[in-house]
Amino acid sequence: MATTDNRLYTIDEVCDLFRCGKSTIYKLMDSGELRSVKIGALRRIPVKAADEYLARQMGEAVTVDAA
Hints:
- By secondary structure, the chain is an alpha+beta fold.
- The protein has one domain.
- The chain contains 3 helices and 3 strands.
- Strands 1-3-2 form a 3-stranded antiparallel beta sheet.
- Helix 1 packs across helix 2.
- The protein is globular and about 35 Å long.
- The N and C termini lie far apart (51 Å).
- Pfam families: HTH_17.
- This is DNA binding domain-containing protein, excisionase family.
């Protein structure tokens, strides 16, 4: 039986994880780069969405070879 990961981060938890401010997280959510869900007046980020965003960012990272 497959299980789904339904865990959710708060905005503050994602700020700590990404090492950035709340305004950056809200911009990412507003632009659609970081998926989020609204529960009443609260905004939450699925753990999977945060992981996917970080994976995309790591894939776009440029590596510079030391000469």
